[in-house]
Write a structure and sequence with these properties.
The protein is an alpha+beta fold. It is built from 15 helices and 16 strands. α11 packs parallel to α15. The protein starts with about 20 loop residues before the first helix and ends with a strand.
Amino acid sequence: MTAHEQTTEPLRPENFDLYHPELIDDPWAGYSRLREQCPVFHSERVGWVLTGYDDVSTASRDYEGFRSDWGPKSPTPRNLPRTREEEGGEAVFSYAAYPVLPIETDPPVHGGYRRLLQPLFTAPSIERNWGDDIRSIAHDLVTAYVRDGGGDFVESVALPMSGLAVAAVLGIPREQRDEFQQRALLLARETGPALEFLEGAIESAQSGAFHVLATAEIDGRELTREEKLGYGLILVHAGWETTAGTLTSMVHRLATQPELRAALTAQPELLATAPDEFIRIDAAAPGLWRTAGEDREVGGCPIKRGDKVLLMWGAANRDPAAFEGPDEVRLDRKPNRHMSFGEGVHRCLGSALARAEITAVLAELMAAPALVRDESVPVERIAGAVPVITKLVLRPGR
């Protein structure tokens, strides 16, 4: 059986993988059950899996014991030869053809790549440079959605919100952002024309993150073409689907748990803490792989150098040892040290951007009529590395 084939076997630690059918409708219940059974376990398909908050946090900060520069996704070290596949006669490059920067590096190399863009992605920088733009995008999308009678929130609001906000921060001119979104979708397959478009966008950018990539130097040298494209690919995709997934989960909860909207209406100050609680409760990226760089023992389990290890942010976020009432949405939760953005040197570079988008959309949703589910259209979900709602039809309430 391949890793992504459906199984009829009940979910157990030994057969766990992110695509198990029991993880489609409610992945968090499955993660919690596994954590309660065995906080550290080994799966034939996945490798070692860490689910407890303290274990995940410790491993996330231990970049020597749990390395990223051997590839957080790939089962083989990044320094092995890369492949070029043929599909339908057209040369198609896999992600392995480009360094996934800065994710697949570790200190000291990691710091040089991270510092290139870190100043742009701080919360003050996001607000100063793009705050008004992000709020304007959210206002336009939510206003049009309500005016048109609702529809699929994913296609109408969540995906374009993330795509347009990312385009703004990358430095794509306003008049080119719609086209950029469409072209960027093709980058998932990395077709030649889409890569050429990405390269052109990087080299022609006059501001934003792409301009930094086009002009930056590391150790006195310019970035190579492969480095620019590898960094560019992750900037386009890393926060797009995950943030869109969080936006959709958030509006689904508001539409199906009216007490949440009532609380936000009665206490507007909750808008300051609510976004992080929505980010915690439905972590759009449930985890990321590392490779053991040294022998480690976690929870009494011997992890050997070279073993693959999955750090389960989503399971850690529901750990009762770290969060009171972990399965409840507590809009006033503070502090909220969730793991949805990771931790340590590899903490998500775009976390402030994601939070700004979610805050802006939440404010617009609260200013608009309440949305309710269209019960005639099923909610569609997927399991996997990004277990999100893929279709959610809502209508303005009466």
